[in-house]
């Protein structure tokens, strides 16, 4: 498999009060097309910072990150926004659903903003919600859904524009352990059935244990790169 993401000597620091925090330090790795990768490590290890750089939501202080050969470190803000809209999907622990919209409308909203014709929108939204097991809950608003169902809606929203990669930042942190494992199982299943690249951050060892590849971070550095035999 060819590389979809390549990071080269990636570093990023922040200033908090009088203190400088090195969130990432000289990190280099590659993630291939179609891989399922977990970023593991304790809070403060650099997982979210790395996800934000891979998604073009932030820029590195040093080094670079490439998505399919395009430098995200040197791309303009407009170029990075266009790349995210076309090729990347995002899932967050807080779900970020619009409370007054139904599951269907939450998933459809981005396609509507993009001006996609109604017939294609309907087909894509229905397909995405059926893929996450919510074809029977299209009309339900978030307050009528369980936490696991809300996260499934968020995953469908990330899937609906058919991205090449989905970045999920602690997607199970707001869920109980059983529901969280079910959500990660769903992500693995979607990776296998659709071939979408998934990069998932977690501090939960049980979740990391479900992944075929785990990149472990510690104090902003690459601590280990583990692959489970297929």
Can you give keywords for this protein?
230 residues; alpha/beta; Rossmann fold; six-stranded mixed beta sheet; 7 helices; 30% strand; globular
Give a verbal description of the structure.
The chain has a single domain, classed as 3-Layer(aba) Sandwich (Rossmann fold), CATH 3.40.50. It has helices at residues 47-54, 77-87, 103-113, 118-131, 147-159, 177-194, 205-208; strands spanning 3-16, 19-32, 36-40, 62-67, 70-71, 88-92, 165-169, 197-202, 213-218, 221-227. A hairpin with a 2-residue loop joins strand 9 (213-218) and strand 10. The protein is of the alpha/beta class and 230 residues long. Strands 6-7-8-3-9-10 form a 6-stranded mixed β-sheet, with helices on both faces. The chain has a 4-stranded antiparallel β-sheet with strand order 2-1-4-5, covered by helices on one side. Helix 3 runs parallel beside helix 5. The longest helix is centred in the C-terminal third of the chain and has 18 residues, at 177-194. It is globular and about 45 Å long.
